[in-house]
Amino acid sequence: MIGKQSTIRVNGVDLSVVDRGEGQPTLVFLHYWGGSTETWSDTIDHLSENHRCIAFDFRGWGESGKGLLDYGLDALARDTLALIAQIGLTNYVLIGHSMGGKVAQIVAAQRPSGLLGLILVAPAPPTPLHTPPEARAQIRECLDSREGVYSVFPTLAHGELKDEHKDLVVRNSLAGDPAAKDSWLKAGMDYDITHLAPKVVAPIVVVIGSHDVVETEGALRTAFDRYYPGTEYVVIEHTGHLIPLQAPGELASAINGVAAGFSR
């Protein structure tokens, strides 16, 4: 990803930030559990001619600070709000993938000034994810080795990922702080944020992968229709959970259209 890369310190942690492109509204990207700014690189390639694009590594991931005590979703949301304030954004759209989508919901509940809307890509819903403990243990183990990460590709992706994307996912997964990996499985997945839903006034568009078996279309529509009435949906065909890697062009096209609508 070509762009200005810097380290910005917020809430006592150094965040690795990529700032690329020009144009309004600014697009702020929040990655998934196991991801980094690199997750968004191909999508931003399609967007940076018309939008300022800001992506950052959550604490504990990528090149951001590690060895911390708190990797909870509220901490990630506070970091996001602090970063936006420090950069001075006044006209922006939050784009969150999977875990990043749940963080975006928490941020939006604070009703920050300048937030135009949310684009949630295969997001974790506001409801708890009832995953059996043995399944969580297996998922956690997968993020500790190349072979383990490879074993989950059939679940995360529909069809084959490019080799370069497989390498990216492996690299980012292995680079995560073990405590950050644990936090989502032990607390983030179960975190019920439905009580925050009435506080969210920003419009929401959910982008769904037609073959996503992690966050399925039916489950997402049920949750978001219940807790965020008026949510709109975009379905991208022939994709699984890793939409930013499998369909960056289609995703960017959807983001362009939605962001333009938010700006009217």
Q: Would you kindly provide a written description of the structure presented here, covering whatever features stand out?
A:
By secondary structure, the protein is α/β, with parallel strands linked by helices. The chain has a single domain (4-263), classed as 3-Layer(aba) Sandwich (Rossmann fold), CATH 3.40.50. Helix content is 41%, strand content 18%. It contains 10 helices and 8 strands. It has an 8-stranded mixed sheet with strand order 1-2-4-3-5-6-7-8, sandwiched between helices. The mean pLDDT is 95. GO terms for molecular function: hydrolase activity. Pfam families: Abhydrolase_1. Keywords: Hydrolase. Residues 25-246 form the AB hydrolase-1 domain.
Record the SSE blueprint.
Blueprint: E1 4-10, E2 13-20, E3 26-30, H1 41-47, E4 53-56, H2 73-87, E5 92-97, H3 99-109, E6 115-121, H4 133-142, H5 146-156, H6 163-175, H7 178-188, E7 204-209, H8 217-227, E8 232-236, H9 243-246, H10 248-263
Parallel strand pairs: 3-4, 3-5, 5-6, 6-7, 7-8
Antiparallel strand pairs: 1-2, 2-4
Helix pairs in contact: 1-10, 2-3, 4-7, 5-6
